[in-house]
Design a protein that fits this description.
The protein has 249 residues and is of the alpha/beta class. It is built from seven helices and eleven strands. The chain has a six-stranded mixed beta sheet with strand order 4-3-2-1-10-11, covered by helices on one side. Strands 5-6-7-9-8 form a five-stranded mixed beta sheet, with helices on one face. Helix 2 links the parallel strand 2 and strand 3. Helix 1 packs parallel to helix 2. The longest helix has 18 residues. The chain is globular, with a radius of gyration of 18 Å.
Length: 249
């Protein structure tokens, strides 16, 4: 068996999304990838929007994702560390997945030292989203009182509404194709500001934008945007020496 020395990064799978033509085939493709990386995966970072919608009640969880959750559990059981950073679509993960699978949940900016290099990660909506209404909604969705009120609504209403909203948003917000982030982009500004306040970072890794980016920022660091796992089928891998963006296909 190969030695587990690689660290993998993936974001924006949007499993279960209504705009994905064959959701089961998509889930199977992701599971194939998880099993393919299992022999070498030391750590797997899931950088948000892994599920298109998820709300976890105290004693009930949504249906679906059985193959995906099973593959994650297999990875965890084999010794791979799994860290799931919340995105804007999977905000409402609480304690079910950490307890059942054995993964770690992070919300917001995560700083880790990996093989002697400093990585700073975030889904991307928390540091590079300029829309005021979006930022206000992000705060509301994380408010504990609002979450309790939402949980009182029967899932027959909330699940369908959430998927319709997601589908409408995707249809009316075409995904950009550019692989360039200008110096004025909020993600680039965040990286520059963060290093001024906290010192050197080797890699900033984000999702959310659904584009592939690998560019230099100030102080010799690199800024990575991972693309997505339903259209581009892309991911990142760090082998202890270099970071590469790759495709499942």
């Amino acid at each position: 068996m190969a030695e587990r020395t690689a660290t993998y990064f993936i974001s924006d799978l949007h499993l279960g999304a209504g705009y994905i033509p064959d959701r089961i085939a998509h889930e199977r493709k992701i599971v194939e990838w998880l099993r393919a990386i299992a022999p070498t995966a030391k750590t797997l970072y899931l950088l948000g929007d892994i599920l298109d919608y998820w709300y976890e009640y105290r004693t009930v969880v949504p249906r679906g994702y059985v193959r995906f959750f099973g593959a994650l559990a297999e990875l965890a059981d084999q010794g791979t560390e799994i860290v799931w950073l919340k995105g804007n679509h999977d905000i409402w993960i609480f304690d079910y997945l950490p307890k059942e699978i054995g993964l770690t949940i992070a919300d917001g900016i995560l700083r880790r030292e990996i093989d002697g290099r400093v990585f700073v990660m975030e889904h991307g909506d928390g540091i590079g989203e300029p829309r005021r209404l979006y930022r206000a909604m992000r705060r509301l969705f994380r408010n504990r009182i609002a979450q309790k009120l939402y949980s009182a609504i029967h899932p027959r209403w909330t699940v369908g509404f959430a998927h319709r909203w997601s589908r409408h948003s995707r249809l009316h917000s075409p995904m950009k194709q550019s692989t360039v982030l200008e110096d004025t982009d909020p993600m680039v500004r965040f990286a520059d500001r963060y290093q001024k306040e906290h010192g050197h970072v080797d890699y900033f890794v984000f999702g959310h934008r659904h584009i592939l980016v690998d560019r230099k920022t100030g102080n010799g660091s690199r800024l990575i945007v991972l693309g997505d796992g339903f259209r581009l089928m892309s991911y990142g891998v760090w082998d202890g020496d270099k970071f590469e963006l790759k495709s499942m296909e």
